[in-house]
Amino acid sequence: MSLRQLPQGKTFSRPKNFQWDAPSDVLAQWSDKPLAAEADDPNTISIYDVIGEDWMTGGGFTAKRAAAALRSIGSNAVTVKINSPGGDMFEGIAIYNLLLDHPAKVTVEVMGIAASAASIIAMAGDEIKMGLGSFIMVHNAWGMVIGNRHDLADASTIFQKFDGALADIYEARTGLKRSEIVALMDAETFIAPTEAVDKGFADSVDSGMKAKAAISSDKTQINAVRRLDAALAQAGIPRSERRSLIGELKGGTQDATANVTQDADISLLVEIQQFTKSLQKDQ
User: Fold this and answer.
1) Reduced to 3 states, what is the DSSP secondary structure of residue 99?
2) N or C: which end of the chain has fewer CB within 10 A?
3) Model confidence at 59, in pLDDT bands (50, 70, 90)?
4) Which candidate in 116, 216, 217, 278 is catalytic?
5) What is the pLDDT of residue 232?
6) Are residues 232 and 196 in the same domain?
7) Terminal-residue alpha carbon distance, the chain
8) Mean pLDDT of all residues in the chain?
9) Is 119 a catalytic residue?
10) Are residues 168 and 205 in the same domain?
11) Domain closes at, from 183, 213, 243
12) Domain range for 232
């Protein structure tokens, strides 16, 4: 169990037709500086991906993956390395609860950015360390629901409860006043290491913590598509539409981006980038 007296994350039924997303500025920052997961020891979990299923790569870090990793680690202490823009808050809460239930010490290392759902996961750490230049980013529940007014009304109520559940976790971990937590979430706040320690979001700044830049050829095209996805998000395109647009531009279905390889057509990526720029000019 957690060495700290932290609350379990409250769980809710997923709203009908709910689609998760991450703030566009967070996606842009994360995709612009991709990091590679090191060859970690068996008791380390690396979360260097979006939280939830990733439609572009077929990956994403899910509660199922976290549970499998923790079963393998057993009763040993675990280190969780994070560089993630967040994503599915429902998955983030589930992963937080899994880490909270781990019988040994949980050390969280923020290697790049722990935003949105990833920041909630980070709060499960008995000890939270941040590397130089890293950030924790907090905000209100983020997503989109499609439906009639009843669906939207139900979603609004659930999102209010979800914000409260997130605030409960931040408040318990940091010791800050509720009003300050709410203000930070409302402002979609990026918190640098020193400030994070001052406010209780982290315990220490470790200048020796560094992650390798992702430069391997097998990741190059995936990173390129992620940067384009971030640009589309900044142009105000919802996640579902981004999936369709990128899939269509790649000459196939919405799942065409799931198997991006070294053989991906560079001219196509340029075409997508030009298309994105034209959208931004129209804003």
Assistant:
1) helix
2) C
3) confident
4) 116
5) 67
6) no
7) 49
8) 80
9) no
10) yes
11) 213
12) 217-282
